[in-house]
Design a protein that fits this description.
431 residues, alpha/beta, Rossmann fold, seven-stranded parallel sheet, six-stranded parallel sheet, 15 helices
Length: 431
């Protein structure tokens, strides 16, 4: 089957892009031909044989940037002008989608979050129209929704709110929903009376990951630390919901100068760098400057060089040198970093984040040190210290979690879910 994936951007390290690439891998292994339509191919060239660029679909296009600002942040916006703009550019994108469907002989569409979150209004409108017009079986891979983002997608204009409610998430009769957690499936059912298939984020448990090698043995040196130091890794972006302040407090509570916390992500998505500045102030107040490193300049998802000869490490390299991983998030749609830690056979310290951790991950039986509400009790710190300073215990926990992860979050799980989704989508379109 020729399957067409529509996505705002692909190639980066955000959860939507990462999971999409896994879906592509598994769909190809199942024998399908996969074509991708995207607004941005991030940090890599596109393959013209299977990939098509539509610049207007980029989240950073002038068209989308303007409409997002005017729709959600400026009450004085000329509403008639805004609606005219949305209609014009959604038609541009719609025509390009329909041409792509024809040229690539697309037989099934997968919309990657573009039909769930209104972060690109014109793209969502265009996909909605194309799905209805083409009648093709469609899977909407819904990672998150407008109502999960507080007031971010609440417009001062009633007409825009009505429009968002009508278009997002897409609810065409020839479409079905794939969601990434139990809470989302329940919400879709309660709000719209529509069934959804829960497809967890997965990892390839048959591919080596997080292995020590000749390259990453020098990782400590490149960060200015010693080989005998013990490394806690925070392998996430720097945004408030990641709860990085709890990881910093943990370093303070452990009272060991050999404990280092490495934060691999950048703060590009931290509005005004407010949270990053709070973390810097916290580090200063606790006098932890020599133990905590913001090392985003050294890491790339795949370890690609920036072209000037500087060494760049992959996330696999980071896990390879981690004594343990911190993941004190307060909210996640799923939690890729958790499953990555499991895949890399590294123990993990976790906050019971909403709304996913216990229902979809923790309840499977993973062995972790878990805290509630980001609060580090003395008991929790002691339990974490025991894991950090006892390599045999850490290895035992990591091996147990790896086998559990293979059972619940592997490519085999994804293949089963995709077979189910495709069957239901084809049936819905033929009904």
């Amino acid at each position: 089957m020729n399957i067409g994936i529509i996505i705002g951007r692909i190639g980066g390290v955000d959860g939507v892009a990462l999971e999409t690439e896994k879906w592509i891998d598994v769909l190809k292994a199942m024998g399908h031909q996969v074509f991708t339509l995207s607004g941005q191919f991030q940090e890599r060239p596109m393959d013209p044989d299977t990939e098509t660029l539509v610049p207007e679909m980029s989240f950073f296009s002038p068209e989308s940037f303007w409409s997002q600002k005017k729709a959600f942040f400026y009450p004085e916006t000329n509403l008639e002008e805004l609606i005219e703009h949305l209609n014009l550019y959604s038609k541009v994108i719609y025509k390009k989608i329909m041409l792509w469907i024809k040229e690539r002989n697309i037989q099934l569409i997968i919309s990657e979050n573009a039909s769930a979150l209104p972060s690109h209004l014109e793209m969502g409108m265009a996909i909605n129209k194309a799905v209805h017009k083409s009648g093709l079986p469609t899977i909407t891979h819904d990672h998150d929704f407008a109502w999960e983002r507080g007031d971010r997608y609440l417009s001062p204009h009633r007409e825009i709110n009505d429009f968002v409610s009508e278009v997002f998430p897409l609810r065409a009769p020839n479409s079905i929903h794939a969601v990434i957690n139990t809470h989302a499936a329940n919400t879709i059912k309660e709000r719209f009376g529509r069934e959804a298939i829960n497809v967890p984020n997965v990892m390839n448990f048959d591919q080596p990951f997080g292995l020590p090698n000749q390259k990453n043995e020098n990782l400590a040196k490149h960060m200015g630390f010693g080989k005998t130091d013990l490394f806690l890794f925070q392998i996430t972006r720097i945004v408030r919901r990641k709860g990085i302040e709890s990881a910093i407090r943990l370093v303070h509570e452990l009272k060991d100068k050999n404990i280092k916390l490495i934060i691999t992500g950048n703060y590009a998505d931290d509005a005004g760098s407010a949270y990053y500045n709070e973390l810097v102030n916290q580090i200063h107040e606790l006098k932890l400057g020599e133990q905590i490193s913001f090392a985003y300049h050294l890491f790339h998802n795949k370890g690609l060089s920036n072209g000037d000869g500087e060494v760049r490490f992959s996330l696999s390299d980071a896990y390879a040198r981690a004594t343990a991983c911190t993941y004190f998030s307060t909210y996640e749609g799923f939690g890729n970093a958790f499953v990555e830690s499991v895949l890399a056979r590294r123990p993990i310290f976790v906050n019971n984040y909403e709304p996913v951790y216990m229902p979809d991950i923790g309840s499977k039986g993973f062995k972790t040190v878990m805290i509630e509400n980001g609060e580090l009790s003395g008991e929790a710190v002691s339990a974490m210290a025991e894991v950090i300073y006892n390599p045999a215990l850490a290895a035992e926990i990591a091996e147990y979690n790896f086998e559990l992860g293979r059972r619940f979050f592997s490519y085999d799980t994804l293949r089963e879910k995709l077979e189910q989704l495709i069957g239901k989508a084809v049936a819905a379109a033929g009904a």
